[in-house]
Design brief:
With 180 residues, the chain is α/β, with parallel strands linked by helices. It contains 6 helices and 7 strands, in the order ααβββαβαβαββα.
Length: 180
């Protein structure tokens, strides 16, 4: 009985924090970055897989979906089928998907294991290894998974962290591609 009371007290305290600090705790909602924020480049990638190195300047004119993930993150693995579906559906229309693999744990820094994970997970789009967190820091990112949509002019126009909002994300992709 004491355990149940303690668990209830922790739940109430957590809920109070969630309500009191919505900007801090509401990481699963879509956020709109500062208007006209230019997307940072991919400088600092320690290695590229499935592609030669990419740059934002070379991708001007394309709609770009940048996804921060790591191979051992369960939430990232839950989002992955949706990212792959967007790639499969819209790559022919000008959508470029770039996975930014920023490791949380030391064992995730191994390129051989990442190559195996990419093969096993069926990822066909470019993946940048961000072992030094340089791309992560350039974006000011703090969460896995996190998705940034970049318009044809190189501006970040949409950001989502966590799972969910897949229909809204696809609608934004379609809008940016002129398919809405």
């Amino acid at each position: 009985m004491k355990f149940l009371r303690l668990a209830l007290a922790v739940a109430v305290f957590s809920a109070a924090l969630f309500i009191a600090l919505p900007g801090t705790w509401n990481i699963a909602s879509a956020e709109t970055p500062t208007p006209d924020a230019t997307a940072p480049d991919f400088a600092g990638a320690t290695q590229w897989l499935n592609s030669p190195p990419l740059s934002m300047s070379a991708l001007r004119g394309k709609v770009v979906l940048v996804e921060f993930w790591t191979r051992e993150c369960i939430n990232c693995l839950h989002v992955l089928p949706h990212t792959k579906a967007l790639y499969d559906s819209y790559a022919g229309d000008g959508l470029v998907v770039v996975g930014i693999h920023t490791p949380e744990y030391d064992e995730e820094r191994d390129v051989t294991s990442l190559r195996q994970a990419i093969r096993t997970l069926g990822i066909r789009y470019p993946v940048a290894m961000d072992n030094d967190n340089r791309i992560w820091n350039a974006y000011g990112n703090r969460y896995w998974p996190a998705i940034y949509l970049i318009d044809r002019d190189g501006r970040v126009v949409y950001r989502h962290v966590g799972e969910g909002d897949y229909d809204q994300m696809e609608a934004r992709v379609r809008q940016l591609l002129g398919k809405a």
